[in-house]
Design brief:
Layout: H1 15-35, E1 38-39, E2 45-47, H2 48-52, H3 57-60, E3 65-67, E4 73-76, H4 81-89, E5 99-108, E6 120-129, H5 134-150, E7 157-162, H6 163-172, H7 177-188, H8 192-197, H9 202-212, H10 219-229, H11 234-252, E8 257-260, E9 274-280, E10 283-292, H12 296-299, E11 307-313, H13 314-323, E12 335-340, H14 346-358, E13 362-365, H15 372-381, E14 386-390, H16 392-396, E15 399-404, E16 409-414, H17 418-425
Parallel strand pairs: 1-5, 7-8, 12-13, 12-14
Antiparallel strand pairs: 2-4, 3-4, 5-6, 6-11, 7-9, 9-10, 10-11, 14-15, 15-16
Helix pairs in contact: 1-5, 1-13, 5-11, 6-11
The structure holds adenosine monophosphate.
Length: 426
């Protein structure tokens, strides 16, 4: 037999890690509810054209693309925003605005696998459509803050920028959109010199160089220095103004903004306004990121719809929880082993297990036919709380034996009282 392994970059998540991932997903859903985002479920496989329309070269080149049996060119989703924008132009076109949506699930990118970078990973993705005000930008940052807090992370901080600053400068000097996007992609990869080489206009290069040279840890000083650099560029100046307003809104709510970078760019091409990422000091890669994209819905044939969204990398949040050693308060349920003393009692034992499950108590039936001592040893090893021993003599009297596995004590209990007694001990 061949030694089957997972495909490179894809992982099996064993119970502990899957448990932590599900804990993070439950917190992502709770956060969505608190902020009024309703969950939608979209397909993993989408038309290649939809996913590639505005994702940017970086992500386009890393998509899992293939022909289905009907000869359609399709791809595994590398992100959720395109699917959500499709909903906004179709099924939800006439819904009153703002539209607040959550999508959670796996996404696929042919990235180079390394710690925190996989080819199949999980995201929680929040989008708010129809709102152009800075309160909406602030909301997306604040809900990310809430999620980080609710999973127990500490010392996380935001890095914030605004693509309108670079686009504003380049646009005023008539640099075409394609070159603008290429410059932003290079900025994202921190290839600043290559980015500057793409720009023919001298004043533009000088302005961009000036922004790259701003070196201060103070958010306030960065904003003031950026304002001075862009004072001759109307759109870029408005972008800084907008960024400052958003920063004030989030800072007043106690949200930790560590850095503002006027030349910060992100891989996705569709951003038009504020962009951000969230980090913890112990992990180099971002735990989540997002931004404003006011033209995407239009690109997909919808009405002009301002929009903003964020995607959280759930695998990286799991990694951050493990790194910061913040045990997730998973609130483990009590576990009970149900063990028949003899094989002939198996039907009765099954009935007892069903009785417990109906009462909401987790019950595992002994299905290996082991002797009582072996079954109890196994229950102990798996850190179960109680064993319910189903013996012939006790059953005749309408009873079972309940054994507290930690205390190594046991007593007889009437079956009718069993769920109540076990629940009271949890
Ligand atoms: P993006 O959709 O590129 O804005 O990414 C949003 C978040 O997804 C990032 O901040 C990461 O936390 C996470 N992420 C992106 N790429 C990967 C990957 N290859 N593996 C694991 N997480 C990723």
């Amino acid at each position: 037999m061949p030694n089957f392994q997972t495909v490179r970059g894809m992982r099996d998540l064993l119970a502990d890690e899957a448990g932590t991932l599900n804990f993070v997903i439950s917190k992502a859903r709770e956060t969505a509810e608190l902020y009024g985002y309703r969950e939608v479920i979209t397909p993993v496989v989408e038309p290649y054209e939809l996913l590639s329309a505005k994702a940017g070269e970086e992500i386009r080149s890393r998509m899992f693309v293939f022909k289905d049996l009907g000869n359609r060119t399709v791809a595994l989703r590398p992100e959720f925003t395109a699917s959500i924008a499709r909903l906004a132009t179709g099924a939800l076109k006439n819904e009153p605005k703002p539209l607040r949506m959550l999508a959670v699930g796996s996404v696929y990118r042919y990235d180079e696998p390394q710690r925190g970078r996989y080819r199949e990973f999980y995201q929680s993705n929040y989008e708010i459509m129809g709102a152009s005000n800075p309160e909406a930008d602030a909301e997306i940052i604040l809900l990310t803050d809430s999620l980080m807090r609710s999973v127990g992370l500490h010392n996380y901080a935001f890095k914030i920028g605004h693509v309108g600053i670079i686009r504003g400068i380049l646009g005023q000097e008539n640099v075409d959109e394609k070159t603008q996007s290429a410059v932003l992609q290079l900025m994202d990869k921190k290839e600043h010199n290559k980015a500057l080489e793409l720009i023919e206009s001298e004043p533009c290069r000088v302005a961009l160089k000036g922004l790259l040279d701003i070196k201060t840890d103070s958010v306030h000083e960065t904003i003031e220095a950026t304002k001075r650099q862009v004072e001759n560029y109307g759109d870029a100046a408005s972008a800084v103004q907008n960024l400052q307003e958003i920063l004030t809104l989030v800072a007043e709510r106690g949200c930790p903004v560590a850095t503002v970078e006027p030349t910060f760019a992100r891989g996705l091409e569709y951003y038009t306004g504020m962009i951000f990422e969230v980090y913890i000091p112990e992990v180099e890669v971002a735990l989540g990121g997002g931004g404003r994209y006011d033209r995407l819905v239009e690109v997909f044939g919808g009405e002009q719809t301002p929009a903003i969204g964020v995607a959280h990398g759930l695998d990286r949040i799991v990694m951050a929880i493990q790194t910061q050693k913040t045990p997730p308060n998973k609130c483990e349920k009590m576990k009970v082993a149900v063990v028949p003393v003899k094989t002939i009692m198996k039907g009765r034992a099954l009935g007892i297990a069903q009785l417990l499950r109906t009462a909401g108590i987790s019950a595992e039936l002994e299905v290996m036919g082991r002797k009582i001592n072996k079954a109890l040893e196994d229950a102990d090893r798996r850190q179960m709380d109680f064993a319910v021993i189903v013996g012939e003599r006790e059953i005749e009297q309408g009873c079972v034996v309940v054994r507290d596995l930690a205390k190594r004590e046991q007593c007889e209990v009437p079956i009718s009282d069993l769920p109540k007694i076990l629940s009271s001990r949890s």
